[in-house]
Fold this sequence. Notes:
By secondary structure, the protein is an alpha/beta fold. The chain has four helices and five strands.
Amino acid sequence: MKDKIRLAIVDDHEIVRLGINRGLEGEEGISMVGEAENGEEALLLARRENPQVFLVDVKLPDISGIEVVQKLKEDPATAAIQAIILTVYDDLEIAAEALRVGAIGYILKD
Length: 110
């Protein structure tokens, strides 16, 4: 049996986190390992749970999702985490910046 992808979600809206969790419920290849509602919680979650993939909202109440990705990539303990930016903003500049700091993708919430 193949190992499951360890996924964590970072979004300040509980309904979004709940929706993603429910949408992925029952997916055999994914294991949900945690959630965070702001950037600082996300960085702690990354060190504690060591997810393979982080879905990170670009707009968080404390630091931006782009800053979260940058901090993950700068820390040797979390640098291997693959981050995907999740956002409502269809903005090429934000997408380019996310990729520049180390995100592997940019997904629109709609």
